């Protein structure tokens, strides 16, 4: 088995009889309205990937993990002329991927439910599908020629990895996201010190998730992928050069892993786009000519930005006041339609203010309790959520050129909240499409309806807690305990204070923790966590 790194989260896995191309993101326009660009550049690989998918003689498969445009690249896929290959995608409640590929004209489309195997000669492709709340994603395993490659990409399956390892057997090469990919804290108006502290905590949490996955799976090699994109829009370029943010590189991850797993028999690989790895020997068959190193990072980015400057000149334009007024009116209608579809509106106790930067004294105030949107001159509550955005950027959402989630991931907005507490229903209101909001609410109710409990040992005491995380339903029996009192969710690393009834200090969610009838008195050799004992995460 040979594995070619295509950049970001893209791979081509080849055996003598089959080729599986995974998440090829190769468009020179990047993703999320060109806010994200591939790092390092990988556009030169487009002809090679086209040849892999268009050349007969082997079974050919295209796998797309989910809808995010740094994985699903319609612009590149439209350039493929010969489409006699099979598309393998996850089956989500939202049918966007199925609808797109039903019209694509390929040989066949296999929409896989969780755990489905697609046979190939001498092995199989297997998908693991995850859909909770606003998150839809999948992971893929390819087994063939005596080797196994598991690509977790962005999929948060950490609470299932132990079962996957038990059911599927040894994994030779493993890859998983290690960098952040979210608008918090990137788009929030925090003081510099607060921003850095939140970023560092999130970075360590992501690194710790990779560490625990490696401990569970014990692969022979880890391939760093789904790392940071770069931001070449002049309004976003500063994100690349911040001393601390949620976009670390592979070198920083490997330093963490060296401390966290000092005795692991693990080969850590940072590939460049175009590098080809032999999964059996773990040696590179070939290396791409250009290597991006830390010492030339800034000069590389500035040259890259100069080459792509035309993209950002093309998208910026001055708007007439009448155009802005029209966008303001359309936005008000859009927010009201969203509110009408949000069945759980009464749970949101604070208003949302939306400001077009061109109209700073005509804010839209979303009152979730009264279920109405009003125009107001200013913010007049201390408890509120606020969003600022340019009409030039937002109109692309109203014109359906971007989804709401794509827009949020473009980072072309500013957010603030008081108090600084995550509100899941409001978060869903912003990020979910109108037609999906009722399903989103049903998903919240379904997660909350799970009442199964489990037992946790912590600090010499035993607690019973709800087994499934109230956030998105992760199995907390696969979690761990920190500081002798905090149960940590394996999927998003929320911490629940067992000595405070299982409450999460950052958002008020609770596991309804109660002392168990029989106290736990572990011996000196027993860990605090009964299922997956591992050491505490180390600071960078």
UniProtKB/TrEMBL annotation:
CDD domains the UniProt entry points to: Rieske
Organism: Myxococcus landrumensis
Pfam families given in the database record: Lactamase_B_3 (PF13483), Rieske (PF00355)
Keyword Transmembrane on entry: no
Entries under InterPro entries matching the protein: RibonucZ/Hydroxyglut_hydro, Rieske_2Fe-2S, Rieske_2Fe-2S_sf, UPF0173_UPF0282_UlaG_hydrolase
Domain Rieske intervals: 455-504
Disordered: annotated span: 509-540
Protein's UniProt name: MBL fold metallo-hydrolase
SUPFAM superfamilies tied to this protein: ISP domain, Metallo-hydrolase/oxidoreductase
Record carries keyword Cell division: no
